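Consider the tokenized backbone below.
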């Protein structure tokens, strides 16, 4: 197996996502819409186009290269993306001469992520660090995350996962043998506040928390 997942960032030398020096893999997509989300660019499950107007010199190269004719400039000079036409190929980002466009989220295989993770094994060993899966909600891509965690354990790496617990109980129990540390993001125990601030009506996070404890 070499599952694929949508990853929006891989951060090496991370010091705040568990013990020691770590590599943090940020998975794209989250079923919640918390007002205080620290990675709002992670919420959508699909890769997204980000446009930085202050860098753009309006050469219109992106419009010419897009195979889907998904781009246009509005009257204020802002680049607009037609989400229905765009198929997230990333050609506009790769070919923009000024770096004004970036594609947030790319498809990675477990092997590709593992190759990045392995680069810092000496640092994990000396610092007591390892690998952390984060997001987004990593357990929304459970098959990929499970395989990646299992691969890390075969390399004798310390593993951690940052999760809201907002997932199926089966997804949680499937990864248990391969996780050394759960870092739970407990939103609130008040169901009304949960509904208002978390953006979803089913407080299954609490069941996941108490079930694991
Ligand atoms: S290719 Fe880049 S610099 Fe040129 S118009 Fe498009 S976003 Fe702007
Ligand atoms: S990602 Fe591809 S399809 Fe989407 S706007 Fe860019 S070039 Fe067009």
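A designed sequence for it:
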């Amino acid at each position: 197996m070499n599952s694929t997942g949508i990853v929006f960032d891989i951060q090496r030398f991370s010091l705040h996502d568990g013990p020691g020096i770590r590599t943090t893999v940020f998975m794209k997509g989250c079923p919640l819409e918390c007002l205080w989300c620290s990675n709002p660019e992670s919420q959508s499950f699909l890769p997204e186009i980000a446009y930085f107007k202050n860098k753009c010199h309006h050469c219109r190269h992106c419009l010419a290269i897009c195979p889907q004719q998904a781009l246009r400039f509005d009257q204020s000079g802002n680049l607009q993306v037609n989400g229905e036409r765009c198929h997230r190929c990333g050609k506009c980002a790769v070919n923009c001469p000024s770096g004004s466009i970036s594609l947030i989220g790319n498809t990675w295989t477990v092997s590709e992520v593992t190759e990045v993770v392995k680069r810092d094994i000496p640092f994990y060993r000396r610092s007591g660090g390892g690998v952390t899966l984060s997001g987004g909600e990593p357990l929304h891509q459970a098959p990929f995350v499970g395989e990646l965690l299992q691969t890390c354990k075969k390399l004798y790496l310390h593993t951690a996962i940052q999760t809201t617990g907002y997932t199926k109980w089966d997804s949680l129990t499937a990864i248990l043998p391969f996780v050394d540390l759960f870092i739970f993001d407990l939103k609130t125990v008040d169901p009304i506040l949960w509904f208002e601030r978390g953006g979803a009506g089913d407080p299954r996070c609490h069941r996941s928390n108490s079930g694991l404890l």
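The first helix runs from residue 61 to 65.
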